[in-house]
Amino acid sequence: MLKKQTVWLLTMLSLVVVLSVYYVTTPDKMNTASPATGEKIGQEKQGTDKAVTNEAPKETPKKENTSKETTNKETDKKENAKKETSKKEGNVSVQSSDENFTALRMQMEDQRSEQKAKLQEVMSSTKASATEKNKAKENFDAITTMETKQELLETVIKSQGGYPDALVRADGTDIRVTVKAAKHSQKEANKIIQLVRSEGGSKDVGVKFDPPAK
Questions:
Q1: Is residue 122 located within the same domain as residue 192?
Q2: Which domain holds residue 124?
Q3: Digit-coded pLDDT (tens) for 196-207
Q4: Which residues contact 146 (CB under 8 A, 6 or more apart)?
């Protein structure tokens, strides 16, 4: 009986020893395996970091290229704008004094010709009354008289003032005089006003000096 108990105790002790040895040795294996795994993980991280650092500089040329393209586009736009501006400036026409005089004179003559044509239609119309015809005749004669006076005034102004050209335009009670002159003064303007009033009656007179074309 004692032998059986002794054997049983020895068996239990041996099991306890085996289990204790197993539990003691197992953590050591786990600890020894973990550094290798950590090294692999660290190497993988270093590899990915290197890949990221190697790939990152590739984006810089793209930015430089886009900036170059942007500057090129801006310069092209500026050059095109300059070309368009130069074209517009080339199309701008600058009228000289001679052209202004010619245009004003032609405009005045066209207006008078139109007025006289309408009056002649009334004068020759069979539908117009005698009163209308007489009034049209008076207006027609007044326009003709004004034309003669204006031509006379222009001749006198040019001869007395020594001006190369002069334009007289009558609009109702107002008379506008445009004189082509390189130099002008208030004294010369007063002379022209007095001359026009002596020939054309007491009307409001305006004088404008226009320098001749160079």
A1: yes
A2: 97-210
A3: 888 766 678 888
A4: 170
- Cα angle for residues 74, 82, 86 (degrees, 5° grid): 170
pTM for this prediction: 0.50
Judged by DSSP in three states, 126 sits in coil
Of all residues in the chain, the percent with pLDDT exceeding 90 is: 14
Burial class (CB in 10 A: 0-12, 13-18, 19+), 136: buried
* Domain final residue pick, 55, 83, 111: 83
Pairing outcome for strands 165-171 and 174-180: antiparallel
Looking at the fold, whether 33 and 137 belong to one and the same domain comes out as no
Establish how many alpha carbons lie within 13 A of residue 147's alpha carbon, considering only the half-sphere containing its beta carbon.
Answer: 15
In sequence order, the 6+-apart residues with CB closer than 8 A to the CB of 122 are: 128, 132, 133, 136
